[in-house]
Structures are given as structure tokens and as C-alpha cells.
Amino acid sequence: MGNGGKGMNDGWDKLLRAARAVLNEREVSPFVYAGQVGAAVETERGNIYVGACVDGVCGLSTCAERAALYAMLTAGEHRVRRVVAVKEKGVVPPCGACREALMQLMPDAGKIEILLREEPRRVCMLRELLPDWWGGDRFEEQ
């Protein structure tokens, strides 16, 4: 897994600020908790979409990364360049379901950059987190 650039010029700081801006851990009801993880997705067009996690005791939950993806898709975009998720303690990697959701977006999704650690910067490509992905052949069939 590679190391990204450091400092304000690498672009991650803007995404980190956007993800942290939606952190707002709270109990919505006795059944729903929200905001303990925030995420930011940067598209190839340079737009940033954010989302916060929503956890329900019924098991119908949404990770922050997927919430950000849904906002992006609602706005009409689907080509992701970079993703970051944060908790109060710092950067967290995407779970398996979020990795899968990202991989299914586009044929070259394996090139999506994921921030794994803020300091020192640690960045990898999605394909490093999900090697030998099962669905690549479907994109080739199109």
C-alpha cells in the first residue's frame, strides 16, 4: 500500500474537513443512532459529497461512505476519485460492504484512492483492499 503526499497540496485535507464537518454522534431515537462516522467522496469532476452513518437496531444501517455515495448518485455522478471516512479518533478504512459498493460503480473503480491514515499519510487504491474482485468480467461484457 502506497504513501500519499503530505500537506495541504495533496487534496486530502479538504476531504478530511468535509468528512469531519458531518460528524455529529447522536441518538435519534431509542432505535436509531447517527453521525459517529463521517465520509467524503471526491468525484472525477472534483465535486465532494458527504454522508454520515445511520445505525438502526433493526439491522438496516448505512455506513457513512455509502451515504456519501448515495448523495453523489442522487446528484447524477458516479465516477469516484477518492474516499475518506473519519471517526472522532481519526481516519477509518471502509468496511467490506463499502469496498464492494465502490467497486461496482465503474470499470476502473480499482483505481479509487482510499485514505487509510492521516499522519503520516497512507493512501492505497481500492484494488489493494479488494484484490481479485469477482465482478470484473461483467464490465467487460458491456
Architecture blueprint of SSEs:
Blueprint: H1 12-21, E1 26-29, E2 32-43, E3 48-56, H2 64-74, E4 80-87, E5 90-92, H3 96-103, E6 113-117, E7 122-125, H4 126-129, H5 136-141
Describe this structure in words.
This protein has 142 residues and is α+β, with helices and mostly antiparallel strands. The protein has helices at residues 12-21, 64-74, 96-103, 126-129, 136-141, and strands at 26-29, 32-43, 48-56, 80-87, 90-92, 113-117, 122-125. Strands 1, 2, 3, 4, 5, 6 and 7 form a 7-stranded mixed β-sheet that branches. The longest helix has 11 residues, at 64-74. It is globular, with a radius of gyration of 15 Å.
> Mean pLDDT across all residues, rounded?
92
Number of helices: 5
Poorly predicted regions: 3-8
Instruction: Give me the secondary-structure category.
Output: alpha+beta
Shape, per Cα inertia axes: globular
Number of strands: 7
